[in-house]
């Protein structure tokens, strides 16, 4: 049987949100099942998102994160933690992947996720609107063995693992059955760190694996880009005169 994929997407209201969710939903629709899409909103579950999920043709759960947060730097962190708690609580079995609503994903990525046993990672290409260059972040591999890391300006701060939020996936049983993985249960709750920006990924990963020997580089050789992380600012979109918009499509 094919391994279940559990795709976690935090989302929030801004211009083009409907477009992002539709586009991601259509990609996920092309991935062979079983796939569960966990979409997490802040404070309230919106009708508009519910409508897109219902029409997506993808198996989904629509969750709400009620943790009070006014910190703009959190950018979806608490929502991802809500999904992790849900997976742990319900003992959902599958490969967990954090997919932001606004990034670009290939079908090869989802195919690669199914090869992961414990912890898989791969290089991600990051594109920023302001800079005219792509930055690589993620593992350098020999076959599926991780032997080094692509680093960038951000990484000059001492991070143990140079992995983007969209550049790794884990077996969900690590969250609720640590004994199976002979993982030291030092910190029982494996949540994303909300304190230091840029350290969230590495802090989380350090709780899940001890070192590179417990990682699997995918696809074989890690020499292909299978998803792109875009830093888009869609807040100040200007619409043509006379257009009417649903709440969801308005710039906030
Ligand atoms: N996000 C969210 N609430 C926020 C900011 C971001 O739910 O206040 C979500 C957003 O929809 C996306 C993910 O968190 O799925 C990452 O956000 P963004 O792409 O803006 O961050 P970046 O990748 O640019 O750091």
TrEMBL record:
Keyword Transferase applies: yes
The organism named in the record is Rhodamnia argentea
Annotated Gene Ontology cellular component terms: Golgi membrane
Known EC number: 2.4.-.-
Subcellular location per UniProt equals: Golgi apparatus membrane
Protein role = Involved in the synthesis of glucuronoxylan hemicellulose in secondary cell walls.
What does the record give as the organism's lineage?
A: Eukaryota, Viridiplantae, Streptophyta, Embryophyta, Tracheophyta
The site feature described as Interaction with galactose moiety of substrate glycoprotein is recorded at 137
List the membrane topology term(s).
Single-pass type II membrane protein
What protein does this entry describe? Glycosyltransferases
Source organism, top-level taxon: Eukaryota
Question: What's a GO biological-process term for it?
Answer: cell wall organization
Which protein family is it in? Answer: Belongs to the glycosyltransferase 43 family.
In alphabetical order, the GO MF annotations are: galactosylgalactosylxylosylprotein 3-beta-glucuronosyltransferase activity; metal ion binding; xylosyltransferase activity
The answer on whether this UniProt entry bears the keyword Transferase reads: yes
- Ligand binding (Mn(2+)): 102
């Amino acid at each position: 049987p094919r391994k279940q994929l559990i795709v976690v997407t935090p989302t929030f209201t801004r211009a083009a949100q409907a477009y992002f969710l539709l586009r991601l939903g259509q990609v996920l629709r092309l991935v062979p099942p079983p796939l569960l899409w966990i979409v997490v909103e802040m404070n309230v579950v919106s009708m508009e998102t519910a409508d897109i999920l219902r029409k997506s043709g993808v198996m989904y759960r629509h969750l709400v994160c009620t943790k009070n947060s006014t910190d703009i730097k959190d950018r979806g962190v608490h929502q991802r933690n809500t999904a992790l708690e849900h997976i742990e609580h319900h003992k959902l079995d599958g490969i967990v992947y954090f997919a932001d609503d606004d990034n670009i994903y290939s079908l090869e990525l989802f195919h690669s996720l199914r090869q992961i046993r414990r912890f898989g990672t791969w290089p991600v290409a990051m594109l920023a609107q302001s800079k005219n260059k792509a930055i690589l972040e993620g593992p350098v591999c020999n076959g599926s063995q991780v032997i080094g890391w692509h680093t960038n300006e951000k990484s000059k701060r001492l991070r143990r693992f140079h992995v983007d939020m969209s550049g790794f996936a884990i077996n969900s049983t690590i969250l609720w059955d640590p004994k199976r993985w002979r993982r030291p249960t030092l910190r029982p709750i494996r949540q994303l760190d909300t304190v230091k920006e840029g350290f969230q990924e590495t802090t989380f990963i350090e709780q899940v694996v001890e070192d590179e020997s417990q990682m699997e580089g995918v696809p074989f050789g890690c020499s292909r880009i299978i998803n792109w992380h875009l830093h888009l600012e869609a807040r100040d979109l200007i619409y043509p005169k006379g257009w009417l918009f649903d709440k969801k499509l308005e710039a906030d």
